[in-house]
Amino acid sequence: MPSRNRMDSVSICKQEFLLVRCGVEKVKLLKEGVEVFVDTVNSEPLHWGAWLELVTLIKDKESLLTLSLPNHWMKRFFLGHIYLELQLNEEGLKIYQHLMDKGFVKSSYIVSQVAMAYNNMRGRSSVV
C-alpha cells in the first residue's frame, strides 16, 4: 500500500495538471471570444453590446492595441469606456472631451463617464 504522502503528492500533481489544463482551455476560449467580438464590431460597428462584451475580455492596453478594430466613430466610445476600465483615466478623458467637442456635449452617457474618470482619479490619488 502506498504511503499517505505519496498518494497526496500524486493527487496534488493531478489537481495541478487539471488546473493548468483548465487555464490553457480558458486562454483558448478567451482568444476565440475576442476574435468573435472583433469580427462582430467590424461587421456591425453600431452593435454597442458587442463592444461592451469586448471590454470584458481585454485586460491590458497591450492587448487592446493588437486588436483590428473598425475605423468608426463608435470605436471612440469603446476606447473611452475601456480606458476607464483599465484605469487609464486621463486617456479616457481625452477621448470623451473629443466626443463632446464633436457634438456629444449633452450626452448623459459621456457626462457620467467623465464623472467616473474623475472619481477614479480622486480615489487613486488618495491611495498613493
UniProtKB/TrEMBL annotation:
Gene3D superfamilies: Tetratricopeptide repeat domain
Keyword Acetylation: no
Domain Cdc23 as annotated: residue spans: 26-115
GO biological process: anaphase-promoting complex-dependent catabolic process; cell division; positive regulation of mitotic metaphase/anaphase transition; protein ubiquitination
Pfam families: ANAPC8
This protein's record includes keyword Repeat: yes
GO CC, any one term: anaphase-promoting complex
Segments passing through the bilayer: none
Keywords: Repeat, TPR repeat
Name this polypeptide is given: Cdc23 domain-containing protein
Species per Swiss-Prot/TrEMBL record: Magallana gigas (Pacific oyster)
